[in-house]
Amino acid sequence: MLQRLQHLLGTEDLTREQIAFILDQARPFQEFHRHPLKKLATLRGKTVALAFFESSTRTRISFATAAARLGADTMNLQAESSSLKKGESLLDTVRTLEAMRPDGIVIRHTSSGAPEFVAQRLGIPVVNAGDGTHEHPTQALLDALTIRDRKGKLDNWNLTILGDILHSRVARSNIHLLSKFGVSTTLCGPAMWVPRELETLAPNVRRVFRIEEALDEADIIMVLRVQSERIHEPALAAEEYILQYQLTPERLRIARPDALVLHPGPMIRGLEIDPAVADGPQSCVLEQVTNGLAIRMALLYHLVGGAPVEAPEPAKE
């Protein structure tokens, strides 16, 4: 029998079978979002704590919506309005949350390893919503669900990741996850953002610095968000980045004709991606958002609701 997950802290330690299980569990929730009434009683009486020690809009709203649609209550902590500004430690803050008896905690933190630190000290499920430059596992899972829906399978594709890979937890989680399915990964961006050690994250990972070479034979193209504060570094200007690395319609034609374009959002149109590509038929950006809800509902159902490992469908009222 498949081993039950106690937490979701990253994709590196997930098995191929666990990943496939989570994706399968998300399928009924994809169908559920097409219904006119989007409310279940699956987690009625449960409470999910959303502890976001780093600013977030999309991920926080996605988790809050997932919990609400399962019937759970939420308690929210945001760094800009919390006692962290007064010097309270991470451990004291989460213990205060735990004293309010939530049934699970979703945490985003600027420090790599913070969710694992919390999981080792609390007796409730912890979901990593992004920690430093370490991992963002639910983003990788929703990306995998999107790829599997569009392509029919996850195995043996050529993945190209463009942009600031050094600072990207999304890139790391995707590399760890997709490598378990035999995906070959090409990393491309300015040399300072694609250091050699990234090639050791998983098998079949290589670096190139010309976007034309990176896109050749690509089945999946993942465009990363470029942080505004980094695009003004002395070694890089926005105009140079656009000239060398922006994904344009012309460059997209170098990839395979049915190549998918993914972006974790929010997109900076006209910088990392051309609007014609972002809104084109190969773009999966809006599907990623919808699939994010399905993945997060499936995880909360499994971790907080205590769904049986072999459950084929979510519990309904």
Folded structure, characterized:
Helices cover 35% and strands 14% of the residues. The chain is built from eleven helices and nine strands. The strands form two sheets. Strands 7-6-5-8-9 form a five-stranded parallel sheet. A four-stranded parallel sheet has the order 2-1-3-4. Helix 1 crosses helix 11 (285-303) and helix 5 (137-151) packs across helix 6 (169-179).
* Cα-atom radius of gyration: 19 Å
Order of helices and strands: HEHEHEHEHEHEEHEHHEHH
Distance between the termini: 27 Å
Helix count, per DSSP? 11
Sketch the major β-sheet: 5 strands, parallel
Uncertain stretches of 5 or more adjacent residues: 311-317
- β-strand number: 9
Strand content: 5-15%
Essential attributes:
single chain, 317 residues, alpha/beta, 5-stranded parallel β-sheet, 4-stranded parallel β-sheet, 9 strands, 14% strand, disordered C terminus
How are the SSEs placed, and which strands pair?
Blueprint: H1 16-32, E1 47-52, H2 58-69, E2 73-78, H3 90-99, E3 104-109, H4 114-119, E4 126-131, H5 137-151, E5 158-162, H6 169-179, E6 184-188, E7 205-208, H7 211-215, E8 220-223, H8 238-245, H9 249-252, E9 260-262, H10 275-278, H11 285-303
Parallel strand pairs: 1-2, 1-3, 3-4, 5-6, 5-8, 6-7, 8-9
